[in-house]
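SUBJECT: A protein chain and its fold
Encoding: whole-number codes for local backbone shapes
Chain under study, with its fold:
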Amino acid sequence: MEESEDPRPYHVVVNDEEQYSIWPDGSEVPAGWRMVGFSGDRASCLAHIDEVWTDLRPRGLREWLAAQG
């Protein structure tokens, strides 16, 4: 089975730096991460992340750069 064909359910998670990932349904989300309310198969979750995570820089770096002018 290829990764793109993975039928298991996943949740989209995000950390405090606004970095996204997927996490298997039924597994405890690691400390520092929280669910964003989107779930589905692997491909659907990764497609959702592609839509919403448009700036891959960590939040702290974006804020620092914005403060630099």
Observations:
- The longest helix spans residues 42-52.
- The chain has one domain: 10-59.
- The two ends are 49 Å apart (CA to CA).
- The beta strands are 9-15, 20-24, 33-41.
